[in-house]
Amino acid sequence: MRSIKRVAVTGSSGLIGSALVAKLKSDGYQVQKIVRRPTRSSEEVKWDPIKGEIDLNALDGVDAVFHLAGAGVGDKRWSAAYRSEILNSRLLGTTTIANACQQLQTNVFISASAIGYYGETGNRAVTEVDKGGSDFLSVVCREWEAVADLAPSVRTIKLRTGLVLDPTGGALARMLPIFKFGLGGKLGSGKQWWSWITLHDQIRAMIFLMNSKLEGAVNLTSPNPVTNQEFTAALARVLKRPALFPAPAFALKAVLGGFSSEVLGSKKVIPKVLTEAKFEFDYPFVSAALTALID
Predict the structure, then answer these.
(1) Is 281 left (phi over 0), alpha (psi -120 to 50) or beta?
(2) Distances (CA, A) of 63 to 5, 48, 106
(3) Domain boundaries, the chain
């Protein structure tokens, strides 16, 4: 098996994708971005995930592919039409990329998934060997991962990513202004488990997995999940602000619709595969992680 030198990335303009591309380039890899719009340079490759079209000639010789594209689950209210878009954007895009990897015989195909796979876990800790849930996002993740396996001769990794922390995007970026004004607090009961990871460790883990021999599902979460109340208290403490204004569950459901299940639901997810592979998190504890991110 050839060593990894050329890497292709879908979803390269997102929070994770843009950070991944920057890190890969700084580490000396040749990176190609797979984009839906017309290409602007030789570093870009055109694809149409809905039509199942991709420029295979431009990808010839690529050693690894990261597939991170898909409609955002928190971007809009979950109407019937948007539920279909969430699912289809993943199934069609992943099918296209998996088939391309199979034809190109890449070293490794690394496809995004999420801890939504597990559904509601309550206080029960789960690892990669546990069964998935039965709610909407669990079904999406299960079908998403199934089509990632359409490249049977390629080492395939499915990234079950948790809550990614970075002040430039995602949930933390939305929470920071509220907490800075002293208006933050726990969400719902605050007893629900949040399984999180810093963007820094997310990217490190992804590159670690690319260069490993691992395959299958991998949880990308800190080994120390926290309850929502612990998370919001830590955030308030780092910002030196009170956390006196809880957001009641009914209000979150009214504002967020179906996505409120992800904010109010409990997922206590443990990264057993990464831990057993001796991956070392730079930020395993939430207080130190938030301090570093906000400072």
Answers:
(1) beta
(2) 6, 21, 5
(3) 6-163+198-221+270-282
DSSP string, 61-123: T--EEEE-----TTSS---HHHHHHHHHHHHHHHHHHHHHHHHHT-SEEEEEEEGGGG---TT
Tokens 């490794």 sit on residue:
108
Class of residue 153 by CB neighbours under 10 A (exposed 0-12, middle 13-18, buried 19+): exposed
> In the chain, what are the helix, strand and coil shares in percent, each to the nearest 5?
40, 20, 40
The CATH number corresponding to 6-163+198-221+270-282 among 3.60.15.10, 3.40.50.720, 3.30.559.10, 3.40.630.10 equals: 3.40.50.720
Judge contact between 283 and 201, C-beta under 8 A: yes
Q: Which pLDDT tens digit goes with each residue over 158-213?
A: 999 999 999 999 889 989 999 999 999 999 999 999 999 999 999 999 999 999 99
Tell me the pairing of strands 53-54 and 64-67. unpaired
Q: Return the bridge partners of 64, or none.
A: 7, 108
* Amino acid identity for residue 6 in this structure: R
Q: What is the pTM of this model?
A: 0.95
Residue 3 DSSP label? P
Q: What is the rounded distance in angstroms from the CA atom of residue 233 to the CA atom of residue 247?
A: 14
- Which phi and psi angles does 170 have, rounded to 5°? 75, -160
